[in-house]
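Appendix B. Chain record.
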Amino acid sequence: MHGHLTLINTIAAGLGLALIFGFLCAKVRLPALVGYLLAGVIIGPYTPGFVADAAIAAQLAEIGVMLLMFGVGLHFSLDDLLSVRKIALPGAVVQMVVATLMGYGLARWWGWGHGAALVLGISLSVASTVVLLRALEGLGLLGSITGRIAVGWLVVEDLAMVLVLVLLPPLAGFLGGASPDVAAGETVWGTLGMTLLRVGAFVAVMLLIGRKFFPWVLWQVTHTGSRELFTLCVVAAAVGIAFASAELFGVSFALGAFFAGMVLRESEFSHRAAQESLPLRDAFAVLFFVSVGMLFDPSVIVNQPFHVLGVVAIILVGKSLAAAALVLALRYPLNTALTVSASLAQIGEFSFILVGLGAKLGLMPDVGQSLVLAGALISIALNPLLFKAIEPLQALLREHSPLVRRLEARDDPLAELPRSTEAKYLSRQVVLVGYGRVGRRIAAALKAAGQPFVVAEQNREIVEALREQGMAAVVGNAGEPEVLIQAHIANARMLVVATQDTLSLPQMIDTARTLNPGIRIVVRSHNEDEAERLMSAGVDTVFLGEAEIAQAMARHVLAPPAPAT
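C-alpha cells predicted for this chain:
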C-alpha cells in the first residue's frame, strides 16, 4: 500500500523534517532555510534511511519555483527600482560580471569545460531574495534607503537571471551540452532569435493584455465575497499563466509566474493577493528547498574540501568586496557599502534553479550541483553573522584604515548645502529627515504653507532631483552628526524624522539636543512600545500610524453632516 503513497510520503517526510530542522535552526539564530535544506539532505539518496521519491520531489519543486517567482513578481515595484537605479543597475550588473568571471576562472582551473564553468560562475553571482528580505525585515532595514538599494540590486539580479534561464537552453549546444530547442539544420543564432521573439511576444501579451485582463478577473471574483474563490483565483493565475507561457510561448515556468505576479500587482487587490497566497507559497517554497537539499551529496565536503572553500570564498569574500567597492565608488557611505555587501554574501533559489537546468542540459557535472549547494548552505548559515559584524567592522575600519577615512572625508557637493543657499533655509527652518512617501507629503505641506525646510536624505538620486528643483537638501545618514550639522540643525526650529529607519534615531536626537537644546523633535513610529521609548528619549511628539488613522476616521465619523444644498 505504501508504494502507492509516494506523494504523501514525500510531502509528509519533507514538511515534517523541515519543521524540525527549521525550528532547531531558528533556535540557534540561523535562517530556517538552512533547516529546510538539511531536511532534504536527510531524505535524499546520499544519506542512509528513508529516501523520498526524487521525481515527485522535483515536480513539487517546480510548483515551488512558480510560486516563489509569483511572489517576487507581486512585490516587484518599478517605482522602487527606479528610485535606486543609478546604484542598483550598474552595481548589480558589474558585480554579477565580476563574480561570474571569478567562478568561471576557478572552474576552468579545475579543468571544467566552458559551459560548466560559465553556469557555475553565474550561479555564484546571484544572491537569494528570500534570504535577503527575511534578514532586512529582522533588522528593521527593509524600508530604509540601504534596504531599498539592496532589494533593488537583487531585483536587477533576478531579472538578469530570468533572461539567463531563457537563453541557456538554446545556447546549451554551443556551450557543449544538449540543446533541446535546436532542431536539425537550424543554427544557434536562429534558435536564439526565435527564443527571444517568443519571449518578446509573451512579454507584450502580458503587458498589453494581461495587466488589464487579470486584474479585471480578480475584481470580478472579489465581488462574489468568497475568500476561497479569491485565493483559488490567485493561485490558478500563478500556476495557469506559468503553464500557458511554457506551452504557448516556450518560455520557462519561472518567467511565466514572475509576469503573473507583475500583472496582478496592477490590481488594487495585489496586497490581499500576496497575503492570501502567502501560506501556500511558503509551503511549496519549503518543499522546493527540501527537494534541492535532496540533490546534495555531503561527501563533496570530505572529498573536495578545497573546491568547496573556493566556492565559499567567491560567495563570501569575492562578491562582498566587489559590491562594497562599487557602492563606495558611487559615493555612498561605508555603512551602506557594508550592508549591501553582507546582503549579497549568500546564494539561493536562482542558483539552485540554474544549476538544475544546467545539469538537465548536460552542462553541469553532478559534483557541480553539490558544490553550489554546499556554498549555499554555508553562506546562508553565516549570513546573519555578517550582518552582526557590520557595526564593529565599520568602527574598526574607520579607526585603522586611512583609505576609509579619506573616502568618507572626500569632498561631496551633495553632502553640504551650496554657498548660494538662501538665508531662510539656514535659520528657523524645519529639518526634514527622509523623503519617502511620508516625507514627500510633509514637504508638500510645508512648501504650501511657505515654511522653509532642508531635506536630509540618504538617496543620492533624490537629493540630486531636489537640488534641480531648487530645494535645499543634503545627502547622508542623519544619524551621523555631520549630516545634521550641514542641515544647520543648530539654528533650526524643528526636526521632523519621516524615515522608517529608526535605528539611527537615538543618535539624531542626541545630536539635535546637543547643538540646539530648544529644538522641537517630531518622529513617526510603528508601535506603541517604540513610541513610549522615543518619548522617554526626549522626543516632543510621536505620531503612531494606527492611532493617527483611527483619530482621523473618528473625526470624520463624528463631524456634523454638510448642509443639504
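Further analysis of this model is presented in Appendix C.
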